[in-house]
Amino acid sequence: MLNEYDCWFQKRQITVPVKLPDVIYSCASGEIAAQAARELQNGIKRLTGFSPVMHVNPDLNRNAFFIGVISCMENYFHLPADRLAAGGFLINVKEDRIYIAGQDEPGLLYGVFRFLSLLSLGQIKDGFETSDSPVSPLRMINHWDNFDGTVERGYAGGSLFFKDGVFDYDSGRVADYARLLASAGINRISINNVNVRAKAKLLITEEYLREAGKLAAIFRPFGIKLILSVNFSSPWSLGKLPTADPLDPSVALWWKERAALVYKYIPDLAGFIVKADSEGEPGPFQYNRTHADGANMLARALEPFGGEVIWRCFVYNCQQDWRDRSFDRACAAYNHFKPLDGAFDKNVILQIKFGPYDFQVREPVSPLFGSLLKTRHVMELQITQEYTGHQIDLCFLPQVWEDILNFNAGRQGRRIKDMVSPFSEGEANIEGFAAVVNTGKDNNWTGHTLAQANLYGYARMTWNPAFTAKEIADEWSVLSFGEGETARRISKLLLKSYPAYEKYNAPFGVCFMVTPGLHYGPNIEGYEYSRWGTYHRADNSAIGIDRTASGTGYTEQYSKENTAIFSDPKTCPENMILFFHRLRYDYVMRNGKTLLQNIYDTHFEGYEEAAAMLEEWKNLKEYLEKEVYESALSRFERQLENAREWRDQINTYFFRKTGIADEKSRKIYS
Ligand code: GCV
Question: Ligand 1: which atom is nearest the Cα of residue 153?
């Protein structure tokens, strides 16, 4: 039975085929190692009911847990000589002597958490050995929490950190949160919204920094470093300087002094994240400076303290005239940042949304990946379900990410997942990931209890992008629901959810048919005459934008191979064919049916699949905790309503445009 607050840390009585030792010897002295030892002690208690005791001086003749950092453990034991990266660990089970060694203290902590997961997954037995290292150096979570306690695009209750303009949190809960994140490998967290408005501007003042320092201290033993979102115009809005021009010496000095103050309170701060010149946020463009000028100025202020600047590439004109066809928002990030490749300081990391638009249900991977060769960068994903169902609809996002990670970015013949590694000049490496998180104050953290799988899945995939969505669904389901039929059925349910959601949503990658502002439910022309640059331009005979060389030219931003693939409707992946092409409704797709008939079919099918998910959930009733069953049940019911609305509005819209009936004569409202 699931206690939804505990997520993948369920209490249960497991049987283990080895006799677990009743002593822990720790060979490391730092704060993170101490946390690792406590986690092991509490974790064993949670899973078996008994609590091993801790000893400081190792008795090498005893059966025990021997844990520590490799450099110390090697003095006592011969450990397998696998090369581990930072954060890596090895686990070795020899009868009832169990060794967990980390390359460093975070590695030890990850090793302990992995050992506990493997215990729950039934994999620990005599002779068991494994070693693992994180593939991504940077595994970040972004909160879009506001100081008034609301969460931008949050669907799981209020902020875990703020309320009424000040820090306001339950430190026990924050520690539980840190444990959840660290257990799956997260090592950075930005705590406030990238739209830094109102009281959030005060975060880099002494009064607020004191509080931020206390929060950092809760995350620190879990190996998680804080990042602060800052407002680019702070020198004048906070510092009362006449300008925030990045090339003005008084501005640079202001930031240097501010950085010193920030690091006084949070000595291990990872750095700042900045949304500049984007959706109304201030930035260097105001002063006719480049993004490199802006980012480097901040980077130089943080550099003496080891801090980094995470600079977002979500820069586009959000004041577009829908009449103006000469301009395509999809081209914006590449146009702004590709010419600056190599112009950024070494402690600047560009954070690039995975696609050219904005976390759509289906959109292509941004052409910036594979083209930046001299600039550090990470990929930004969204765990919070802004466009994927608001944590009302079930949508298992590791499936979205798996497709992204399998994209062949071309230039060096590598898929995104093969490009993830530490920065190396000239190699287009992606240093890791950031994701807007889906958590809030709801008891189950994520609104929809099954949306916990998205948080877990993100962390696991960023640890190692080679994990498949199926592996993650299976693992999360067993950790949460225990080994058995229920877990198997829930895993299958998760894997049905994204295909269903995609089918009843905007067709074939055309994007933005959602209700403006809210971004839940259909509004087919909601963005058609707006300033946001996201149009589909459907008329009576065709839909979509020609983004090839003869259209907006967006396809030309890709590698030669990808330009060729995307430019021809015959080779373009059909799940995003309407992102790249303007097609007539009678265009014949690869399955031999017209585009229009495929739109009808996918929307009828998507609804049926949502209905089947609801039925499957009802069938699981007797195996689930009442609270878990009921809260998700009401969500599955609302999801079906949403799917019905999408199905009928989309089908009616295209039927009215074309006057062509469904070839299977299903009900389309005229
Ligand atoms: C934080 C989208 C969202 C905004 C968000 C923005 C961003 O436009 O709708 O809520 O603002 O992305 O990523 O900065």
Answer: 10
As a whole number of angstroms, the distance between CA 155 and CA 177 comes to: 17
Q: What pLDDT digit, counting tens, does each position of 304-342 carry?
A: 999 999 999 999 999 999 999 999 999 999 999 999 999
Question: Which of 153, 329, 532 best tests ligand 1's pocket when mutated (most atoms within 8 Å of CB)?
Answer: 153
Rounded distance from Cα 194 to ligand 1 centre (Å): 8
pLDDT in tens, 6-22: 999 999 999 998 999 99
Residue with CA at minimum distance from ligand 1 atom 2: 358
In angstroms, what is the span from residue 471 Cα to ligand 1's centroid?
Answer: 30
- Atom 8 in ligand 1: which residue has the minimum CA distance? 358
Decide: 153 in ligand 1 pocket, CB within 6 A: yes
Length of the chain: 670
Asked if the domains at 4-132 and 138-467 fall in one CATH topology, the answer is: no
Assessment of whether the complete model's pTM goes beyond 0.90? yes
Angle between helix axes 171-183 and 206-219 (nearest 10 degrees) is 50
Looking at CATH, the fold of the domain delimited by 504-545+582-658 is given as Alpha-d-glucuronidase, C-terminal Domain (3.90.1330)
Residue 194 CB–ligand 1 contact under 6 Å: yes
- State the catalytic residues: 279, 358, 386
Compute CA distances 245 → 253, 277, 339, whole Å. Answer: 12, 13, 21
pLDDT reading at 458 higher than 70 = yes
| pLDDT tens profile 500-537 | 999 999 999 999 999 999 999 999 999 999 999 999 99
pLDDT at 413 (0 to 100): 66
Domain ranges of the chain: 4-132, 138-467, 504-545+582-658
Q: Note whether 325 and 316 are within 8 A (CB).
A: no
How many Å lie between the centroid of ligand 1 and the Cα of residue 279? 8
Probe residue for ligand 1, chosen from 275, 279, 384, 511 as the CB with the greatest number of ligand atoms within 8 Å: 279
In terms of Cα–Cα distance, which of 40, 44, 36 is closest to 19? 44
Residues forming a β-bridge with 97? 94
CATH 3.20.20.80 fits 138-467, yes or no: yes
List pLDDT tens digits, range 244-262: 999 999 999 999 999 999 9
* SS3 of residue 566 by DSSP: helix
* 150 Cβ below 6 A of ligand 1: no
Residue with CA at minimum distance from ligand 1 atom 12:
358
* Closest ligand 1 atom to 194 CA: 1
Q: Is the CB of 145 under 6 A from ligand 1?
A: no
Tokens of 329: 């928002």
* 227: phi then psi, degrees, rounded to nearest 5: -125, 140
Assign a CATH topology to domain 4-132: Chitobiase; domain 2 (3.30.379)
The answer on pLDDT for 70 being more than 90 is yes
Each residue of 551-601: pLDDT tens digit? 999 999 999 999 999 999 999 999 999 999 999 999 999 999 999 999 999
